[in-house]
């Protein structure tokens, strides 16, 4: 009945330990798949009443691999409770909440979700843009509250054809966004660290310059020290009062306090926001604005992408325990 | 100071009469442009307290051209009050509310909005599909009512890639929808009166057959005697419980009572509806459903498309009064 021990199994156990690092509210959608192959340690379910650090100190001293679920912080303090750790498998594309410097110093490899979510996020960015420009979510509220019957026509939205769309970050997500927007007749330009000659779109060396030539900015880049608050007061000013900002990257890309002021004063046309600086909190003022579409960090989330993510995670953990090469490496050991 | 009379002007006046036929709640967005060229008769503003038929009988006996604004009925009874009428310029693409038989018998030419709205409607169809599949409008409501903070994650939507999308009516709008959905990785098929070999998509000779092979149906056809309730109980049954219906055509294409039942019983996955059988009324049950996106017949409406429509309308009226050929002729004299 006993199966062959997995390669890399801890002595005395059939399967290697894998620590799941998550917020209690954030379930791992492919937990069953993980349990098929590994002994899963999960402080949230194994010992919900014990402080996480106590559980880690007591139980995870020999743990060599950790799955970091969703956008939960993984700071140096937590990493120091895991002296044997050699691999962090992030289930997200962005790894800005993981202390990469500590990992580098400790020789801990870090992998991310790679391109698993790129198409879904790109779809969502286009959906947010359509929603803001054509006022779908406000129209749906308008109909549901009976205003169509009572007050007649809903205010008009705007046409997509001819809109100058500036994409900030022409990576996996940004390039999918561009490809999707072309048949709508949008005119695409972009900013990225360097010009990408394989794409036919106009390049701007600065976000400010891109914004000055755009009706719409779509944020698809990662959050780093350099990109934090890349959308600041100056960028919003040059976008002007018809300008629209779509954010499917990270909340920290935008100076959120300034954004709220610009939207409330009508100095920006609208925004479609899937991410916020302090999720799930957000500035209360946003909740009352009709020129904003709000979304609970859902761009990447479809059952189909979770399935692909489960396969990638298990395959990377198996590779690690068999000393095989890792996929989607953000930084090596 | 007096300008040259327009060709075709009524005797004694500088400009030919044009009758505006509209609902009081439905303003003509390019009225000023019309007034630049014609003497506009508008019962709603010229004589708001008089019954429309009395105004027409009294004032419009010599009127040769009528602009039919939005989806207002133009029945034989009304047409009979206008013995000199020779042209109906519809501002819509669909002319199902105009008595075309009476027009034909009387030798009244009818023009429509042609392709003016095709791209905006196609954009909106894609927006509705993205909204239903990725649950944007419900997500926006979820965030605004504080549920993200209180209850955590919003239910997942579905991926676009790989979805079998069936387009009912591959005309101006349908073909624009298809072109837009290709980069999302959707697999396109269609039904229309006849196969269109210039398009690379799979053809199904019946809507029932198309539905049986589709995850999504997008209704882009005109409403005629043949297409009324083309989406009936049988079609909804073969779409199955994950199936989605998007309607940017006319409400009468769907058996709305059946649709409500299917949606409430969870026997359809969802619907995105811009049009309804008895606008602006709709079945109350729809207002409470979360798998439905509701829109107040807005697909065609952007300031940019209204501007183009104004130009088309004036150009057709000028052509008529100069005995020049008409554009967008639905049926000739």
TrEMBL record, chains A, B:
SUPFAM superfamilies: Formate/glycerate dehydrogenase catalytic domain-like, NAD(P)-binding Rossmann-fold domains
Record's keyword annotation contains 4Fe-4S: no
Record carries keyword Oxidoreductase: yes
Gene3D superfamilies for the chain: NAD(P)-binding Rossmann-like Domain
A Gene Ontology BP annotation from the UniProt entry: oxidative photosynthetic carbon pathway
Sequence ranges assigned to domain D-isomer specific 2-hydroxyacid dehydrogenase catalytic in this UniProt record: 56-327
An annotated Gene Ontology molecular function: glyoxylate reductase (NADPH) activity
Domain D-isomer specific 2-hydroxyacid dehydrogenase NAD-binding: 126-299
Keywords (A to Z) from UniProt: Glycolate pathway, NAD, NADP, Oxidoreductase, Photorespiration
PANTHER family linked: 2-HYDROXYACID DEHYDROGENASE-RELATED, GLYOXYLATE_HYDROXYPYRUVATE REDUCTASE HPR3
Family classification: Belongs to the D-isomer specific 2-hydroxyacid dehydrogenase family. GyaR subfamily.
The protein, known as: Uncharacterized protein
Organism: Eucalyptus globulus
């Amino acid at each position: 009945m006993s199966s062959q021990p997995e390669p890399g199994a801890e002595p005395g156990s059939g399967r290697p330990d894998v620590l799941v690092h998550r917020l209690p509210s954030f379930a791992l959608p492919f937990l069953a798949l993980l349990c098929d192959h590994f002994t899963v340690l999960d402080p949230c379910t194994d010992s919900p009443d014990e402080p996480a650090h106590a559980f880690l100190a007591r139980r995870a001293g020999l743990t060599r691999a950790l799955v970091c679920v969703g956008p939960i912080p993984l700071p140096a303090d937590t990493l120091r409770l895991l002296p044997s750790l050699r691999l962090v498998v992030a289930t997200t594309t962005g790894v800005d909440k993981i202390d990469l410097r500590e990992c580098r110093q400790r020789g801990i490899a870090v992998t991310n979700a790679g391109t698993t979510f790129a198409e879904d996020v790109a779809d969502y960015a286009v959906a947010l843009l359509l929603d803001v420009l054509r006022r779908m979510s406000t129209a749906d509220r308008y109909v549901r509250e009976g205003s169509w019957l009572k007050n007649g026509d809903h205010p008009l939205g705007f046409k997509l054809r001819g809109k100058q769309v500036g994409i900030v970050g022409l990576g996996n997500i940004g390039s999918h966004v561009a490809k999707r927007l072309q048949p709508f007749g949008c005119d695409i330009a972009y900013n990225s660290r360097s010009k990408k000659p394989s794409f036919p779109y106009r390049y701007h060396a600065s976000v400010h310059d891109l914004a000055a030539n755009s009706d719409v900015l779509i944020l698809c880049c990662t959050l780093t020290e350099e990109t934090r608050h890349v959308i600041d007061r100056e960028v919003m000013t040059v976008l002007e009062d018809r300008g629209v900002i779509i954010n499917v990257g990270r909340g920290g890309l935008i100076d959120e306090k300034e954004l709220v002021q610009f939207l409330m004063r009508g100095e920006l046309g609208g925004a479609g926001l899937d991410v916020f600086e302090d999720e799930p909190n957000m500035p209360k003022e946003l909740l009352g604005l009709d020129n904003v579409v709000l979304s609970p960090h859902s761009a990447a989330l479809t059952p189909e992408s979770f399935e692909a993510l489960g396969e990638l995670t298990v395959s990377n953990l198996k590779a690690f325990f068999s000393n095989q090469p890792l996929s989607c490496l953000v930084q090596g050991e």
